[in-house]
Amino acid sequence: MTERTGRSGDRDGRGAGATGGSSGRGASRRGGAPDSPGSHRGGGAGGERDARTRKNGVKSAGPTGKAHRHKAAPRPAADDAAYRAGFGCFVGRPNAGKSTLINAIIGQKIAITSSKPQTTRHVIRGIVHRPKAQLVLVDTPGLHRPRTLLGERLNDLVKEAWSEVDVIGVCLPADEKIGRGDRFIAAEMARLRATVIAVVTKADLVDPATLAQHLLDVSELYDFAEIVPVSAVSGYQVDALVDVMIKYLPESPQLYPDDVLTEEPEQVLIGELIREAALEGVRDELPHSIAVLVEEMIDEGGLTRIFADVYVERDSQKSIVIGARGSRLKDVGTRARAEIENLLGRRVYLDLHVRVAKEWQRDPKQLRKLGF
């Protein structure tokens, strides 16, 4: 295994990591960065088309690409009229445990997690397959007071998802008291047609007495259809939560093929895994200034070469991401590559560049280029 250390140039820094094969880049990169990390969706065209065009379906946002697959679930009997299928989402303040919960339900990492608020930036869809039901879960960014054009667009994504799903789970962490942000979200729920349930997350972090009191406080916040305490870490009541959400889905034909785990293109998932690795250990405003664009993926037998750019807003931030003699960027590449290899199931060569796009969070042109 070889690792290329990061180095900073006039405007960009580089870092790469590979398992097996040559550490050299081989063929030169083709062209510049595209307007968005586009790719083509593969497999199950009929089922996915139905999902996108259903009246209460969630519209696809961002680039398209090859859907990630998993082992097929048993199909329901053809004459089973009780089959249910529809869309659900989790909402809540930033860092309420939404993405961690979705990963636990799906059984595979499709949404990145971090202790940094506002980690989620894309509407990620994961599909839960049951013998008599199919639940399409939509992971949304946390609703927050926007300070940039990016923040405004993320809030718009959240509210669009709210209006188009069948059941909404409001995530309320058990280890935090109900606050003004929770009350604001609860008031917004009254305007929606979806069934609204309360999901008390992080139940493993408090004792039974504290959890019981928090459940009472939640019951006074809003007229929730149901209140379900869960722990994504321990698995406590995760399956029960899925059963509750499925109960409120409409009777419907199957929306996705049995072997589709997420609708998201692999390039988007890979970009998010790189960003997750880059978020570790940074502080202040830097987490919000990091974006990742996967520019190219090349399959070479059992090895996939991935070329990606990590964007920041200032030269000083670029230096932080690269680290002394490229040490931090090398660590980012090592951790991201391990997650990507787990996702793809094959060896990966990862080439990272750090680039400066000044004030990209406020620049409409830069936001389009980065897929927002």
How would you briefly describe this protein structure?
The chain is an alpha/beta fold and 372 residues long.
What does this structure look like?
With about 375 residues, this protein is α/β, with parallel strands linked by helices. The chain has 2 domains: about 1-30 and about 280-370, GMP Synthetase, Chain A, domain 3 (2-Layer Sandwich); about 45-60 and about 65-260, Rossmann fold (3-Layer(aba) Sandwich). It has 11 helices and 13 strands. The protein has helices at about 45-55, 100-105, 150-165, 180-190, 210-220, 240-245, 265-280, 285-290, 315-320, 325-345, 365-370, and strands spanning about 1-10, 10-20, 65-70, 85-90, 125-130, 135-140, 165-170, 195-200, 225-230, 260-265, 290-300, 305-310, 345-355. The strands form 3 sheets. The protein has a 6-stranded mixed beta sheet, sandwiched between helices. A 5-stranded mixed beta sheet has the order 1-2-13-12-11. It has a two-stranded antiparallel ribbon with strand order 3-10. The longest helix has 18 residues, at about 325-345. The radius of gyration is 21 Å and the shape is globular. The chain starts with a strand and ends with a helix.
Number of domains: 2
Structural class: alpha/beta
Largest sheet: 6 strands, mixed
| Cα-based radius of gyration, to the nearest Å | 21 Å
Q: What sequence of helices (H) and strands (E) makes up the elements?
A: EEHEEHEEHEHEHEHEHHEEHHEH
- Uncertain segments are 1-80, 115-121
**CATH class descriptor of the largest domain:** Alpha Beta
Describe the strand arrangement of the main beta sheet, using strand numbers: 5-6-4-7-8-9
Fraction of residues in β-strands:
15-25%
Number of strands: 13
> Span between N and C termini?
35 Å
- Helical amount: 25-40%
Q: How is the CATH topology of the largest domain named? A: Rossmann fold
Mean pLDDT: 74
Architecture of the largest domain in CATH?
A: 3-Layer(aba) Sandwich
- Total helices: the number is 11
The general outline is: globular
CATH-level-4 superfamily name of the largest domain = P-loop containing nucleotide triphosphate hydrolases
